[in-house]
């Protein structure tokens, strides 16, 4: 569902129920009207999808009435799709696309696809909603929505300008339906929309679907636009910490901004080797009111690094962002000895800790040498530490050696990056080949375009509150005052607000004198986009000594 949520202070009976329905309709998302919640047993409640069938809309509409309204019925294994659009290969293949998404979705959410083999949604792809109303396929009490709406096993989407975005919207709603019917909740808004965006961003090529795709260019995902959205939003809002962003989500109401941020955060957490394992465990907690706080707690020592690496990602967000190569190790530095030190900097990585400290007010001479490759196509480009002046990145020559000083904080005990960047762990994720994978050095990318005006939500999804009808059923709309956070300050304000020195690169080139204003560890990288590191080869050697 797209939409933000605002908190309410208590039940106000039916009015609130109505407000909930209206809210949920805003985004491509769903109303989460469920059977009585069960205790979370094991990873997930072992409830059969069919057991919740009574939440389906009744299939009382006659085929004759549907045909008379000019609506076609397309049927797959996991989706029945009604549409008033004329036959077209791009349209008629949609149930097949949906079917191919089912196993990867099961894999991501650690569900056995065999057990849920009968799971199926009913969708409506509409150009003229009135036809669906006439045919009885668009209930009059459905709230207005901009692009899509999901209610347990049913979704409604409007026709989109591109085939990519049409599939994307269908898969996005499918993730909501999947989570609400099989997991019992979608989690707080940031997670609900983030995971829907993450999994819906896809590649469809030669009849094969790849979900959770990290696009390498805007041409791969027409109308998706998430990279641009986040770039523009960050220019306006500044670089927010993760916690600041999560707390902001309920107030975001502009265009597709919510989708952009939700995708970016989910893609970052799901792709970054330091946070991936913890993030993927969250699928088991979607019915836990302390959802987000639990995640932060699980990060432990790495919690202090999260905001720093997140801000670096947002600062340079691009199609094909290479999370693995840009992941940073943060060892404590040692003082530079009088004879100086040689430091090796790999051309195919982002920021690299030198392991050596510089002191505020002292002057150092940095001398760089080496020849390295910064591109392979259309031919190999060789480069030296002053960079190549025929191409620039962020106002400086491509390949130029950059330095930064990172003041030491007390997170030196942060866990090192794992050796392998496996998704989650164990057999639950054994179908990983179905996903795109950034740990092989291939880039990642951005996400979706806005689907319409964001909701003017009255409150948000999740958490589970009893419906006011006394039935004991629960409405899993979350009270965003929590956003899965219990309200505790989860990271020191100073950490959240800190602007890491790695955001302020210092040009070095072949030689530079450096008199730092703050003491800290020296970091180096070459000047190139985080999407273009994979074809680099070679290293720079930097000799650093006191120049006094
Ligand atoms: Zn949604």
Q: Care to describe what's here?
A:
The chain is of the alpha+beta class and about 550 residues long. It has two domains: about 350 residues, no CATH class; about 130 residues, Jelly Rolls (Sandwich). About 25% of the residues lie in helices and about 20% in strands. A hairpin with a 3-residue loop joins strand 2 and strand 3. The N terminus is likely disordered. Zinc ion binds next to helix 6 and helix 7.
Which descriptors apply to this entry?
548 residues; alpha+beta; Jelly Rolls; 2 domains; six-stranded mixed sheet; five-stranded mixed sheet; 15 helices; 27% helix; elongated; disordered N terminus; binds zinc ion
Short synopsis of the structure:
The chain has 548 residues and is α+β, with helices and mostly antiparallel strands.
């Amino acid at each position: 569902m797209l939409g933000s949520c605002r908190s309410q202070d208590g039940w106000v009976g039916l009015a609130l129920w109505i407000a909930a329905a209206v809210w949920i309709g805003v985004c491509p998302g769903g109303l989460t009207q469920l059977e009585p919640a069960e205790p979370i047993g094991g990873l997930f409640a072992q409830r059969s999808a069919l057991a919740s069938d009574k939440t389906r809309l009744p299939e009382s509409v006659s085929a004759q009435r549907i045909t008379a309204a000019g609506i076609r019925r397309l049927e797959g294994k996991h989706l029945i799709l009604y549409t008033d659009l004329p036959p077209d290969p791009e349209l008629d293949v949609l149930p097949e696309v949906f079917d191919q998404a089912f196993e990867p979705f099961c894999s991501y959410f650690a569900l056995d696809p065999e057990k849920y083999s009968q799971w199926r949604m009913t969708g409506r792809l509409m150009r003229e909603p009135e036809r669906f109303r006439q045919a009885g396929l668009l209930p009059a009490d459905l709230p207005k929505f901009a692009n899509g709406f999901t209610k347990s096993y049913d979704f409604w989407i409007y026709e989109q300008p591109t085939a990519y975005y049409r599939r994307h919207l269908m898969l996005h709603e499918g993730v909501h339906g999947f989570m609400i019917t099989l997991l019992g909740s979608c989690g707080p808004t940031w997670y609900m929309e983030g995971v829907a965006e993450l999994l819906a961003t896809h590649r469809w090529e030669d009849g094969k679907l790849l979900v959770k795709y990290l696009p390498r260019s805007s041409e791969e995902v027409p109308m998706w636009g998430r990279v641009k959205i986040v770039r523009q939003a960050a220019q306006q809002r500044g670089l927010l910490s993760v916690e600041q962003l999560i707390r902001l989500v309920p107030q975001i109401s502009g265009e597709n901004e919510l989708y952009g941020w939700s995708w970016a955060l989910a893609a970052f957490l799901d792709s970054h080797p330091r946070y991936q394992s913890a993030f993927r465990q969250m699928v088991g907690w979607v019915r836990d009111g302390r959802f987000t706080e639990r995640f932060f707690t699980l990060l432990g020592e790495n919690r202090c690094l999260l905001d720093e690496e997140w801000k670096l990602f947002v600062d340079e967000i691009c199609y094909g962002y290479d999370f693995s190569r840009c992941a940073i190790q943060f060892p404590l530095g040692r003082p530079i000895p009088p004879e100086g030190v040689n430091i090796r900097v790999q051309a195919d990585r982002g920021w690299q800790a030198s392991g050596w400290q510089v002191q505020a007010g002292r002057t150092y001479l940095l001398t760089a040498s080496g020849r390295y490759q910064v591109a392979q196509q259309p031919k190999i480009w060789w480069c030296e530490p002053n960079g190549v002046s025929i191409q620039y990145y962020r106002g400086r020559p491509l390949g130029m050696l950059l330095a930064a000083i990172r003041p030491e904080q007390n997170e030196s005990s942060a866990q090192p990056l794992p050796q392998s960047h496996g998704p989650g762990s164990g057999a639950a994720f054994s179908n990983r080949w179905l996903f795109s994978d950034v740990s092989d050095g291939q880039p990642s990318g951005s996400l979706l375009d806005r689907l319409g005006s964001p909701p003017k939500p009255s409150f948000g999804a999740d958490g589970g509150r009893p419906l006011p009808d006394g039935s004991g059923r629960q409405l899993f709309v979350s009270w965003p005052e929590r956003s899965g956070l219990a309200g505790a300050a989860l990271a020191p304000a100073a950490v959240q607000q800190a602007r890491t020195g790695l955001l302020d690169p210092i040009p070095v080139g072949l030689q530079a004198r450096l008199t730092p204003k703050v003491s800290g560890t020296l970091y180096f990288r070459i000047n190139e986009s985080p999407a273009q590191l994979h074809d680099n080869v070679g290293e720079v050697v930097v000799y650093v000594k006191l120049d006094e």
